[in-house]
């Protein structure tokens, strides 16, 4: 089996239900490398990422994975900043909007399954922060 082969991604991070945070971290690095010119990669300071509560990602584990592999990549000075997005559901039966951490799509007030998921399944890079050359030199 060959190691080190990764599929190219567009904007959203590809992930499976049983996700490995290390491969997601590698996908994030690959995404940034496609958006940032090679000569600026060493100045990438932060990568901001939205992670929904029901995205199937453990944020702490993803941060740890990113911190483990970024120093060996062109993004050697980058760290991950995770914005946690709550799982929110609006009930079409009673009109309630609820947040929960479990990713339950049932209405907590009336028990209806006629609900719309408003947020909490996202997993995408929202911002790449690049330091000024003067800052990086100091
Ligand atoms: Zn309801």
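Sequence proposed for the structure above (138 residues):
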């Amino acid at each position: 089996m060959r190691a080190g082969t990764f599929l190219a991604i567009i904007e959203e991070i590809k992930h499976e239900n049983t996700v490995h945070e290390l491969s997601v971290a590698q996908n994030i690095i690959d995404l940034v490398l496609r958006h940032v010119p090679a000569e600026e990669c060493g100045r990438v300071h932060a990568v901001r990422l939205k992670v929904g509560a029901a995205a199937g990602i453990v944020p702490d584990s993803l941060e740890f994975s990113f911190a483990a592999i970024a120093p060996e990549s062109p993004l050697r000075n980058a760290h991950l900043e995770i914005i946690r997005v709550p799982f929110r559901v609006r009930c079409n039966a009673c009109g309630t909007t609820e947040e929960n951490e479990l990713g339950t799509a049932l209405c907590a007030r009336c028990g209806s399954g006629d609900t719309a998921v408003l947020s909490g399944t996202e997993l995408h890079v929202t911002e790449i922060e690049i330091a000024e050359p003067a800052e990086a030199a100091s």
